[in-house]
Amino acid sequence: MKVTAFIGSGRKQHSYNASEKLLQNLQLLGNIEYEIVRLGDYNLGTCKGCRICFDKGEEFCPFKDDRDTLIEKMVNSDGVIFSSPNYSFQVSSLMKIFIDRLAYKFHRPSFFGKTFTSIVVQGIGKGEDIVKYLDFIGKGMGFNIVKGCVIKTLEPMTEKSQNDSDRIVEKQSKKFYKQLIKKDFPTPSLWWIMVFRMARTSMYKMLNENWRDYTYYRDKGWFESDYFYPVKLNLFKRLSGRLFDKLAIRIIRS
After folding, report:
1. String of b and e for 77-99 (b: at least 16 CB within 10 Å)?
2. Domains in the chain, ordered, with CATH?
3. pTM score of the predicted model
4. Collapsing DSSP states into helix, strand and coil, what is residue 238?
């Protein structure tokens, strides 16, 4: 299996080191190949909000840069890690630019069965909020989520701080590996059923074959399915899904 870590730091220090340590731990646990991708080494334009990727398709993006190379690395990975320093209580600009260029993936998720986690490196606080954001991003693209971790790296780092960080990374490695080898398609929560059913019903009623979102959902068979992937839902969730369809129609007509 392959795991790729995307590093959103311009420095080859704490975010890089923590990610490398996690990947090395994974190799000790099983037959894992890994790659570290420093986003700063790639050419990524800042999204202009033209919506072409939403409406016509991502291949029509006016930027001819390294976005597709990075996405291909995600496609060819069984597991993905987003690692970012805490800059101004959010992800770094490098990481945010990358996420913004992936925006169409939240309309057309595709990474089902793959595993995602995040690492946030910080000096003081608010890292847990960034972890929640990154994990939500991963879930929105279809990944199975292993809740991310926060590592404190207030400089100069003490030996105790480094040992604490190593313990956190080791624990995260074990959780990530456990999910990675499952490659499962978990039963969705009621929230994600709502997201799917209201999105697909809105697309079906409001769009047509001139829109990429519509053709993507049509070709996947999602206009008729209970969820993004085959899964057995209990009676309550099936009935709730129908209710969400009706709610979406009511919102469209209002």
Report:
1. bbbbbbbbbbbeeebbebbbbbb
2. 2-180 (3.40.50.360), 190-253 (no CATH)
3. 0.94
4. helix
Phi first, then psi, for residue 116 (nearest 5°) are: -130, 140
In DSSP terms, which residues pair with 90 in a beta bridge?
87
Give the bridge partners for 49, in sequence order: none
- Under DSSP, the state recorded for 39 is G
Q: What are the pLDDT digits (tens) for 60-114?
A: 999 999 999 999 999 999 999 999 999 999 999 999 999 999 999 999 999 999 9
Phi, psi torsion values for 104, nearest 5 degrees: -65, -20
Residue identified by tokens 């939403």 is: 54
Residue 80 corresponds to which tokens in the numbers above? 């993905």
Query: What does the pLDDT look like over 159-191, one tens digit per residue?
Result: 888 899 999 999 999 999 999 999 889 999 999
Q: State which amino acid sits at residue 138.
A: G
Q: Taken in order 44, 45, 51, 55, is the CA torsion positive or negative? A: negative
Burial (0-12, 13-18, 19+ Cβ within 10 Å), 214: middle
